[in-house]
Amino acid sequence: MKHLHLGASLYVPATRPDLAAIATGERFGHLRSVIFCTEDGIDPRHIGQALQNLRELLVCMRPSPGLLRFVRVRDAGIMAEIVAMPGAEKLDGYVVPKATRSTLASSLATLPEDTQQHVMPVLETAEVFDADEMRLMRTYLLQPDVRRLVLTLRIGGNDLFRLLGVRRSVERTIYETVLGPVISSLVTTFRPWGVPLCAPVFEGLAQPEVLRREVEADLMHGLFGKTAVHPNQIGLIHDLYAVSHNDVEMATRLSEDDAPVVFAMHGTMCERAVHLEWARATLIRASLFGSRGRHDFVAPASLQ
User: Fold this and answer.
1) What is the DSSP string of 214-260?
2) Cα of 134 vs its chain's centroid, Å
3) What phi-psi label fits residue 99: left (phi over 0), alpha (psi between -120 and 50 degrees) or beta?
4) Measured between alpha carbons, how far is 99 from 210 in angstroms, rounded to an integer?
5) Domain 2-241 - what CATH class?
6) What percent of the chain has pLDDT over 70?
């Protein structure tokens, strides 16, 4: 369940001069995952500068416990160039934009056979609207040599809106738009087979209540790890990832070896065979993001 460690993933243009401070957590101390962007977040004319910045960063980048560091590549060629840079092994992995079965295969082929890094493919092409193609993508992802490399799938909401020729209103959550049913379809296509998904970005910078409603809906859809476009969004997202005290108590009881098969707690029926996986994820979330009124929770070692 390493994807639960992502929290709010902040996209940072790789052309910024302060990559080193961001990569070590000095710039944004509450950050759990950062994605240095060499794709849509920068002008194509500046790709050379972005790569030079990354080259300089990777040589001197220090370990930063609790912070996952990725690069969003532009294409398989750029990914191969970054993989070959001295210090590239310090990265936790790569974000592969506009991922299809063929483009993802080309990107994965650039990684060393013994790599411990992961990729996060972004679903943001016209194929996303083709249910048959998404089922074929699932079949591809479930190949053992592919599945071990894929940490989670990301949903590229803005590119999907672009394909439809619309732009979402910041006064509405993404679930109140045409993409609501699409996201539901992606969840039912991938989640039952053990492939997690991240939530798409929310563009609004001054609509915290809409962001709050959207993150709550993300969680109800089983999406975890939301893309953030501004540091001010991170705290709110992480607060919403905290777990209620009642949920922690139920998850703890469900995870105990002597837990009854079925029991009632906090006015809710708990069924161990049905809710154990939820309990595991809930305890890990609580250890990472705290529980409301109890921020020092530590998940049992067996659930890490």
Assistant:
1) HHHHHHHTT----EESSHHHHHHHHHHHSB-HHHHHHHHHHHSTT--
2) 19
3) beta
4) 28
5) alpha beta
6) 96
How far apart (Å, rounded) are the C-alpha atoms in residues 195 and 278?
A: 15
What is the C-alpha to C-alpha distance for residues 247 and 290, in angstroms, rounded to an integer?
A: 12
Please determine, for residue 295, whether its predicted confidence score (pLDDT) is greater than 50. Answer: no
Q: How far is CA 162 from the centre of its chain?
A: 21
Q: Is the pTM of this model over 0.90?
A: yes
Query: Rounded to whole angstroms, how far apart are CA atoms 237 and 234?
Result: 5
CA dihedral 12, 18, 22, 25 (to 10 degrees): -160
| Cα dist from 189 to 137, 184, 254, whole Å | 10, 9, 27
Contact 82, 50 (CB under 8 A): no
Q: Which residue type, as a one-letter code, is found at position 235?
A: G
In angstroms, the CA 255 to CA 19 distance is 41
Q: Are strands 268-271 and 262-265 parallel, antiparallel or unpaired?
A: antiparallel
Token look-up 């006015």 returns 267
pLDDT at 298: 54
Q: Does residue 299 carry a pLDDT above 60?
A: no
pLDDT at position 304? 42
Instruction: Give me the DSSP letters along 33-60.
Output: EEEEESSTTS-GGGHHHHHHHHHHHHHH
Tens digit of each residue's pLDDT (9 = 90 or more) over 7-31: 999 999 999 999 999 999 888 878 9
Distance between CA atoms of residues 120 and 33, nearest Å: 12
214-235 per-position pLDDT tens digit:
999 999 999 999 999 999 999 9
In the chain, residues under CATH classification 3.20.20.60 are 2-241
Rounded Cα distance between 49 and 82, Å, is 13
93-120 average pLDDT score: 96
Strand ranges (E), the chain: 9-13, 33-37, 68-72, 93-96, 118-123, 153-155, 197-198, 227-228, 262-265, 268-271
Per cent of the chain over pLDDT 90 is 90
